[in-house]
UniProtKB/TrEMBL annotation:
GO terms for molecular function: hydrolase activity. The keyword Hydrolase applies. The lineage of its organism: Bacteria, Bacillati, Actinomycetota, Actinomycetes, Kitasatosporales. The keyword Hydrolase applies. This is Alpha/beta hydrolase.
């Protein structure tokens, strides 16, 4: 599937952005321009079932295949958040960016307990503005409004498709390219023990103090600061 994309900048370097569950390219509304200011041409996708991209069957392997079919190989930088981090990890050996950043990646979905299964994620489709604001107190109001708009377009079947992955270990055995794992504080996806394991496997791991799961919306400045040494300087 050819995915919908949005581009910022016209730089010589190329950066790829892959969003998480329920979002689309607009989640990167501050990151895209910030990277463009640093000389990147930034390309952000809408994964299948999200934004302006098509609908269909949903599996991590298909998300990854779509990304490979849509985005250029050999980019200077690729960043994937949450589901986008999982997608990037499944596509990185084919995309072969110079560097990869996995922002609080969905590499371990805890076995569902009562009230916390994939059906609950699907119910966010109808979440009111007050709930989104309450769950994300550090977000700008613009991000709350964007979340409402992206939820209206999102196919909640993407959440239900992940049922078989709950309780499984999806951590990569090794980085295919130089890789940074950027974690929320605390991360509900990557435990401290798994963070140590990732470091042992060759990943660099950094946490953004006090940031929630969507780090780039919770603490944009902290998100950008944590990329020091991984992105083109101003």
């Amino acid at each position: 599937m050819q995915l919908h994309t949005h581009t910022w900048g016209e730089g010589d370097r190329v950066a790829l952005l892959i969003h998480g569950m329920m979002a689309d390219h607009r989640t990167w509304r501050r990151v895209g321009p910030a990277l463009a200011e640093r000389g990147y041409r930034v390309i952000a996708v809408d994964l299948r079932g999200h934004g302006a991209s098509g609908r269909g069957e949903y599996r991590p392997e298909l998300f990854a295949r779509d990304v490979v079919e849509t985005l250029p190989a050999g980019a200077d930088l690729a960043i994937g958040h949450s589901l986008g981090g999982l997608t990037l990890s499944l596509a990185v050996d084919r995309l072969r960016p110079q560097r990869a950043v996995f922002s609080d990646p969905a590499w371990h979905l805890a076995a569902p307990v009562e009230g916390m299964g994939p059906e609950v994620f699907a119910q966010f489709k109808s979440a009111p503005k007050e709930q989104i604001r309450a769950m994300n107190p550090r977000w700008d109001e613009a991000d709350v409004d964007i979340e409402l708009e992206t939820l209206a377009l999102w196919d909640e079947g993407t959440a239900l498709s992940l049922t078989s992955l709950f309780g499984t270990d999806l951590l990569p055995a090794a980085p295919a390219v130089p890789s940074l794992v950027q974690l929320a504080d605390p991360s509900f996806l990557i435990s401290p023990e798994r963070a140590v394991l990732l470091e042992e496997r060759g990943f660099e791991v950094r946490s953004v103090a006090g940031a929630g799961h969507t780090i780039h919306r919770d603490d944009f400045d902290g998100f950008m600061a944590s990329l020091e040494g991984w992105i083109q300087p101003l």
